[in-house]
């Protein structure tokens, strides 16, 4: 059975960003997550992580199609 939720440490590894950056994504609501357990450890649903990655791909495509930042 595939895992439904992953800890923030794994999310950081998948995205290639720091733990602090991952936590900031969660706290801002950009990456939905839940707190579980007595110590309130964060978990991200795999489907939510996949959706976040797809949104980032879409934003990147739009950025490239526009020709990058306006100067």
UniProtKB/TrEMBL annotation:
<protein>
    <submittedName>
        <fullName>DNA-binding protein</fullName>
    </submittedName>
</protein>
<feature type="domain" description="Helix-turn-helix">
    <location>
        <begin position="9"/>
        <end position="55"/>
    </location>
</feature>
<keyword id="KW-0238">DNA-binding</keyword>
<dbReference type="InterPro" id="IPR041657">
    <property type="entry name" value="HTH_17"/>
</dbReference>
<dbReference type="Pfam" id="PF12728">
    <property type="entry name" value="HTH_17"/>
</dbReference>
<dbReference type="InterPro" id="IPR010093">
    <property type="entry name" value="SinI_DNA-bd"/>
</dbReference>
<dbReference type="GO" id="GO:0003677">
    <property type="term" value="F:DNA binding"/>
</dbReference>
């Amino acid at each position: 059975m595939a895992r439904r939720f992953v800890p923030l440490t794994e999310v950081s590894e998948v995205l290639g960003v720091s733990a602090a950056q991952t936590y900031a994504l969660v706290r801002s609501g950009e990456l939905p997550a839940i707190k579980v357990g007595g110590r309130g450890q964060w978990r991200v649903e795999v489907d939510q992580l996949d959706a976040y990655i797809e949104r980032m791909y879409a934003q990147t495509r739009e950025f490239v199609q526009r020709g990058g930042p306006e100067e």
